[in-house]
Amino acid sequence: MAKKQLVKSRDKIVAGVLGGVAEYLGWDKTIVRIIGGVLILTTGFGLLAYIIAAIVMPNAPRKKYDSVIEGEFTERP
């Protein structure tokens, strides 16, 4: 079994922090982003925590075929 690692999401809104947390916990990204947005807007701690996480969290590793647009290439007979 692969080891779980907290990384920034490749599905980013701002820096990918909240998406990465949602992926790590297995929660819906929308719910985590709403909770994070409320914390950021209502408390100074939320904004500070987000900025620190954006700096400290590593980016998600690139996959081999990330640059290929889905459906761009088709097989020829």
Automatic annotation (TrEMBL):
Q: Which domain of life is it from?
A: Bacteria
Domain Phage shock protein PspC N-terminal residue range list: 4-59
Residue ranges spanning the membrane: these are 34-57
- Does the keyword Transmembrane belong to this entry? yes
- The principal localisation class reads membrane
Entry membrane topology: Single-pass membrane protein
Q: PANTHER family from the entry?
A: PHAGE SHOCK PROTEIN C
State what protein this is by name: Stress-responsive transcriptional regulator PspC
Source organism phylogeny: Bacteria, Bacillati, Bacillota, Bacilli, Lactobacillales
